Amino acid sequence: MPLTSTPKAQAEYRFRCISCGHVAETASQDFRCAKCADLLEIHYPGWQQAPPNPQHLRDLWQQRKLTQKAVDLSGVWRFRELLPALDAGLDEDQQAITLREGNTPLYELPQCARITGVPRLFAKHQGMNPTASFKDTGMTVAATFARRAGFHWVACASTGNTSASMAAYAARGGMRSLVLVPEGKISWSKLSQALDYGAVTCQLRTDFDGCLRLLQDLVRNAPVYQLNSINPFRLEGQKTLALELLEQLDWQPPDHIIVPGGNLGNSSAIGKALLEMGNLGLIPRLPKLSVIQAEGANALVRTLREAAGKKLVSVRAETRATAIRIGNPASWKKAANVLEATDGACEQVSEVEIAQAKAEIGAEGIGCEPASAVTLAGLKKLLKQNFVKPDESVVLILTGNVLKDPEFTIDFHRGELFKGTKDEEAMRPLQSLRRPPIVLDAKLDAVIRTLEQAEKT
Length: 457
Ligand code: F0G
Fold this sequence. Notes:
The protein has a domain at about 105-130 and about 235-435: Rossmann fold. The chain is about 40% helix and about 15% strand. By secondary structure, the chain is of the alpha/beta class. It is built from 18 helices and 13 strands. It is globular and about 70 Å long. Strand 6 (about 155), helix 7 and strand 7 (about 175-180) form a beta-alpha-beta unit. Ligand F0G binds next to helix 7, helix 11 and helix 15. Ligand F0G binds near residues 264 and 267.
């Protein structure tokens, strides 16, 4: 048990390079180490001398749920002892840009439990956030620090969800936002959110990786604050997903947490949270954190298999799970580190496996976007490999809401998802999961006949 102290409202922080360990009080606009140009993480030096008391933290976080302060009602800022410090002496509610993010449900998945043979199977649904994806938990922190640093413009490259989230938080915080997305490769729902929240939205004739490269150049040349997950404040906010999950499980760690991997910020953030919780004595042991990618966007899988995690093997990404259509993931090194530290696995799943898993999660009455469904598809693979055992407890992180990608869902149910592609044949066995809309005359007997037909299937 560590030495104890009364926690300060928020933690004093520094930027630390993940490669050379160089520690600095400030970071440049590209959030790269001044010495070696690798990524930075936020580090809390005070915890070494005077770590907060874990029981005190658990009690405090619980009590906050009963107050009416905006920062206490946020499922992110409620955990602010493990977040970078806001300005002492100023009203926290005035400083934090919050939409009451976090506070997402942990669902049981009884049907998927039967399908997989894992009775203790749960989903932490981050699609239940204010802009309907996990991005909001990181965005509330990073947008707050953007405004605190005096920026008028914020910007991101995105496969859709980051841009929706950034646009919303910028609007709430009185800032302008610039969105760079790959033309024709993000869902209409996500694009419409960015437009509605008032972002200047550029559809670039490139892929996500091209958008991110351009953004890096932009922030070096213009007074624009970058809100991609290279920004370490984003990952601090995203850590709270794991804090909230463990609180929901009464601080008893599950055996496995399974998360989709794209740009690899989220897996890095969850891993950082698990390691910090372990070090602070909040949890008695670490769950295994596993990352699942689409076969067509499998840079981390290949990096670990072909280069032993030592250098990035980038790929030309292609998948209908457009949220994770990323070939050159920025946070690959952070993700490789947390997989190693938690003994997690990294797997890939096919387009058809993703479609099947998405329909199975939908049939639970929960639903998610395609990128989130890789978790269930990946679990099936990890069970076959005996990496996950049926008597272990498993939490899938569902990263986006079912309404984020209706084109995918409608194409699936109409049987048009992979028409004319090599996957068309492999989709046939999924017929029984499809519920296509039925067009009828507005007559009672037609509806009753349909009901009788459906009863037989
Ligand atoms: N799931 C969804 C729904 C996503 O939107 C993303 C990433 C991921 C999983 C992968 O998370 O990048 O942290 O590994 N979306 C980003 C975006 C890239 O721009 O919205 P990651």
